[in-house]
Each structure stands twice: as structure tokens, then as C-alpha cells.
Amino acid sequence: MRNVSTLTYLLVFATLCLSTSPCVIAQDTVKEPASPSSELPLSSKDPDEIRARNIAQFIDAHVACRMTQRFEMYCPHSEEELRKLKSMGFTQVILDRVELHEMATRIGLKVVLGNWWSHQTTPDEIERGLLWARAVDPKTLVGFSVQDEPERNTPETHFDFYVDLYKRLKPVFRKEFPTTRIEISHWGPMAALTDAQLQYYSLLYNAADVMRIMPYPDIHEAPLDDVFFIMQRSRKIMTLADRQLPLVVILQTWIHPPKSKLPEIDELRVMAYQAMLAGAETLSFFDFNQQVWNQTPGFSDRFAELMAELTSLSERYREHEIDTYITQNGIVKSTLTSSTGEVSRIELNTHRHAVGGFGPLEVREVTSGLPDGR
Q1: In 317-373, which residue ranges form alpha helices assigned H by DSSP?
Q2: Which of 16, 17, 99, 300 is the most exposed place for a label (fewest CB within 10 A)?
């Protein structure tokens, strides 16, 4: 197999900074470092004992943050679907059909372009991705994703490749797309990761401006508070990488065999509240597949109602300072304080069963109090 050397990539990206003409590359090869990606745990459900031991460090640990203001959907297929997403309160889309960018811009949606690059990607393919970026209104192009789940989709590619790719792309983006951020996604991160594997993941955190993470607990009926813990685990990797990155938290609106069942809307509500109250910059959903959604009667209508609730929450607490933690029994507790000192509280039961006086998946909101009862 012929691979493009690091030196060749350097030459290619220097060319991209100066020209959009087709790239001509030398056919030299280098030995790629062995990738440990195939050894990473990719299940959406951790073994109970490992999970219990891992999450102890995050119980009662407070998160200070602001309320989510960005709402994203993956993979709309048409102008009609773009308009529907806009009407539901979505602010951006991530496109695998890049030709929809003009429609999205006209409708008033921001755009993230999705790419699937590995060490086997040719410079011509990378240049085509940049040509698409140049075709998008620069005020609209908010993100440029270079790979989706590299540990799953291209396990033979060492994460060092993405660090090198980021270093080559960043000067191009500073010059041509100064407000567009380079993004990458990864699975989990799950509790079963070893210290060495966490350190390996930290390479990805040095390969992007924004990190996309995937808590999909409902695939195998894992505890829904995994959303909170996966976000905290991601921040632990940020500490290892010595970089604090905005988080895109992606929730499940797709089906997975053998269950092939969408999450219940009440489950999605609890997952979304966790993400929004624990500092997700963007709340994202994968994906907008009406054929799949229509197989669950009422799902589309109830999802639209949920989006109305989430966008209202976002607007109501736009300027508030938020302090959030999770208790040992899985209750998420948030205190939201306005600039004038008004205090609101939101608490939710992340369990599918009653606990601590909360009903299954119950969300409670108490608003408009002053601190210390004043």
C-alpha cells in the first residue's frame, strides 16, 4: 500500500495556501506507526464494576458553565428538511450532502462540513474538501470536521496523523476561514479506557478546535447519566492534552440492531438536559432520517415538542451562570444564577425508575428566587 509521507503533506498544504490548482504528489512511501485504535473499547455500555469504579471521581464534582445556545442536526436531505429543522429551532446542520450548503445559508442555518479523512486520503481529496469550504459563505461556515469516529471508521490510522493534519490545515484556515473551527469526533469516551488509552485519545484533542463526543447509552439500555459522565471523562482527556475545547454532545436519534428502536422522548429529554446543564456548547442529534422516525408513531411530533422545550430553556437561561453536579443516586442538580442574583434550580432523575422522591426520568424546575431567601 502506498502512503503519502509527512513531508509530502507539508508540501501539499503549502500549495493549498497559495493555489486551488490540482495537486501533484510524489509517490514515495513511509512506514506508518502502528495504531492502537483497534484495541479501544467501542461498546456503548461499560461493564458495571468498571463503570462504578470510574464514575466515583465525578460524583458531587461541580461543573461551572453557560447554557447551550447551538442546536445541530446531522444529515438533512433536502431543502424541505432544512426548512423544517429551522422551524424547530435548530441553528446549524452538519452536511454529508455538501451541495445543500447554499440552501442552508439562505434559510438561515449555519453549516458544518463533514469529511472522512485518514492517512490513506489523497491530497486531491483534501483539496476538494477545501474547495467546498471556499464555496460556503464564510459567515455561515462555522465548522469543518476532518473525521467521524476515527477509532471505528479508520482504526489503522494512528491519531498522530490528525495532529499533523491539524498543524497543516490551521495556517490555511487562519488565512481563508478565520472564523471556522476544525472539528473531529470520537466515540465515548467510555469508562473502560485505560490510562494509556486516555493518553492516546488526548492526541485528538490536539488535533481540533472543537471536540465532538458521542454518548449513546440507550443503544444497549445503559444508564442515561452516562451523558454527564462521558462529558466529564472528555474534560479529563482535555486536562491530559492541556487544552480546553468546546464540546459538541451528540445524542441518538438513530436505530441500532438488534433492538432497532429509537430512544423514548423522555429519555432524550433527560439526556439533553444533562448536556445543556453540564456545558455542551452545541447539542447535536444524529441523524434526521424521516423514514426511520416514521416507524415510531408520534416520534416526530414529540421530538418537535422537545425541541421547543429545549430552545425555550436555552433562551430563558442564556445569560445565567450555571453550577451543576450529579449525586450518588443519579440526580443531576443545577443552580442557575442571573446577573441580578436571581436563582433558579433544575433537578432531574437520570434513571428510568423512581429514586429519591423523583419519578422515572422526572425533570423539575424552580425559578425566580433570590439567594439566601432575600
Answers
A1: none
A2: 99
